[in-house]
Structure prediction request, 230 residues.
Amino acid sequence: MKVLITTDLHYRAAWFEWLIREASHFDAVFIAGDFLDIFIAEPQTTQAADVQLWLRRLAKVTKLAICSGNHDNAGVQVVRDRAPVYEWLADLSRVPNLIADGCTRLVDNIIVTTVPYYCTPVQKAVWLDRGASLRKSRPECKWVVLHHVPPPLRQSPMGEEVEAGELLNTYQPDFFISGHIHNLPFEPGNDWRMQVNRTVVIVPGQLPGAPFPNHVIIDLPSGEGRWIFW
Ligand SMILES: [Mn+2]
Prediction:
């Protein structure tokens, strides 16, 4: 399975259009959160409506899996699966081909878990426990977790990074895909792909002024891939 991984698109229309154009070359696209931009004047609910349309178009081209980030808190949360998900993202779970925020799903022998940002670790366990038990019953399958915040991979990590690291160590998925810290893979000693215990952490990073979004192209389950940045 050839997958394009990107993150932190922050309401950049040109980047969504780029993805919609490129997506046909891939079996799936994974996006690790921060679809909206809370620092611009456009109301978040307007942004969310636009992003919904872009994601629906993208899911018509290829399989799509998404998780939310800290910028994606537009509108209200609804309780789905015993834990909260933003309604504008929960709506997308009805779209064919789209693994929306707060899901564990088996796709072509890959277990995909998408973890919402605005959840406690106990709430996140709803989906992570499901992924763990699926992997136990299907040991031939690799497990990919989309979680906006990466584990600690820099000097002075924040509390939410420590929490991400604890989840990673508890569940030890095969791949942990994150965004959030735009310059993380560019920091000395870091890379787009880093090993944390038995888990491969993938962080494409992002450059807000780039003509196309930073992304990783990877083969699953082998994990062979390359990083494309501007
Ligand atoms: Mn973020």
In short: The mean pLDDT is 97. The radius of gyration is 16 Å.
